[in-house]
Amino acid sequence: MSQTPPINKSVDYKTVSETLYDAVIVGSGVAGSIVAKELSEQGHRVLVLEAGPDQDMTVAGFNEYVKNFHGSVDKDNNAPFPRNPNAPSPRSPDIEKLVPGQVGTSGYFVQRGPLALDSAYTRVAGGATTHFQATTLRMLPEDFKLRSHFGQGLDWPISYEDMMPYYRQAEFELGVSADVEEQRYAGLHFEPDYVYPMHKIPISYLDKAVAKGIDGSKIEIGSETLNLKVHSIPQGRNGIPNPKYDNGKGFAPVGAVSRHQAELGGRCQGNANCTPICPVQAKYDGRKTLNKALQTGSVDFLAQAVASQVQIDPGNGRVTGVQVKVYHDPNSPEHETAEVRGKLFVLAANAVENARLMLSSGLRSTSGLMGKNLMDHPYLLAWGLMPEVAGTMRGPLGTSGIEEFRSGAFRRKQSGFRIDIHNEGWGWATGSPFTDLVDIVDNKNKFGHSLRQQLIDRISRQLLLAFTCELPADPSNQVSIDP
């Protein structure tokens, strides 16, 4: 892993407004960063707009985020990132009941439906990859033909085979750690001799304990009998590089996010707080790809620049520019407005922010579907205590799962799902270990040695299963904007 020279800080917005770019990209998450990298490597002049602050691209800034997370009472996905009134992000603590049967929020992402989408995205450099769990599963071949196989939804115009070379590219860019042989289920297949860039992350002691009771079990669902097995999960985090990758050339992991210091991202150390932040930067996030793009010298990065309107030539309907509001202090509403121009424009914010920007710019689609069919991966949680100490809190959040429920004829009548075995205990479900401590002290009156032993016994046996459920497209799941 070679050290790279420092890169200049975010460019001045006045310089940006005087330049005609080959491409202007709104958003520096995984999509925007990859587009910037690919275009800049071909010699194109690119501008990346980011609503979040510039500190995201320094080691000192990253360490400040880790400190924020450690000091935050609410350990939600956006706990590391200070609230930014100029570029707000939805947060779980903001969700509240409005009236019986409805939910809403006191924050930026107001919800009016009967069920809360307790999900979040982050408006910082790197986007939601800064807090994602780094699970990097491929879609199943049958997922591309839902209508043909199950009479649900629509078939994709492409197949799994069409996507295979792009999966390889993505797995290279993210530096995926996995074992091909453990991923051969439900029709998943790979090119001869293909290996992932890095060896799989070792499964946790908890995974092994669960596997003792799960492997070989048979479950009937519909008219089918499924044989269950605990599988390791492909992960976008630094493990041990596979020397067999790329026909024996091997794989060099990407270093940490830094434009000013040559500090390398570490190998996974098993910290159980990958969501929302890996303290050693072992986990992939979009800033690593953005850093590659910036190294080309063909990319300008304008931080604290909120895209407010896409401007259209009424004569030909072509995009002529993007209006941005540039703020200098995250805690002040004062800002300056500029227009950025380019030959090509890429909106790479996210499903919500792209729709918000297009709707607020008057870009309503002829189909009437702008902002509709919002999809996520909703979770159902189940939790219990293992019969003996099982090493909970050791390892990254999820190293194994049960995948057999992703595939089968039962998908004609119900959604497919998969089960993550979580290594961090009941934190997500109940607020453990804080809630355990309160219960043991206040309700069981334990202290000293007895308190320590009870905490070890309770927390080290905790098992959390997260059922990730398939969500079909539904036009009633939509993004709209406040007038």
3D architecture notes:
With 483 residues, the protein is α/β, with parallel strands linked by helices. 23% of the residues lie in helices and 18% in strands. The chain is built from 12 helices and 17 strands. The strands form 5 sheets. It has a 5-stranded antiparallel beta sheet with strand order 8-15-16-17-14, covered by helices on one side. It has a 4-stranded mixed beta sheet with strand order 1-12-11-10. Strand 4 and strand 5 form a beta hairpin. The protein is globular and about 70 Å long. The model is unreliable at 1-8 and 259-263 (pLDDT under 50).
Strand order of the largest sheet: 8-15-16-17-14
Helix amount, in percent? Answer: 10-25%
The total count of helices amounts to 12
Beta-strand portion reads 15-25%
Main sheet characteristics = 5 strands, antiparallel
The average pLDDT score comes to: 90
Q: State the total count of DSSP E strands.
A: 17
Give the overall shape: globular
The parts where pLDDT drops under 50 for at least 5 residues are 1-8, 259-263
Determine the structural class based on helices, strands and strand pairing: alpha/beta
Span between N and C termini?
50 Å
Q: What is the gyration radius calculated from CA atoms?
A: 23 Å
Please trace the helix and strand order, writing H or E for each element.
HEEHEHEEHHHEEEHHEEEEEHEEEHHHE
Descriptive tags:
483 residues, alpha/beta, five-stranded antiparallel sheet, four-stranded mixed sheet, 12 helices, 23% helix, disordered N terminus
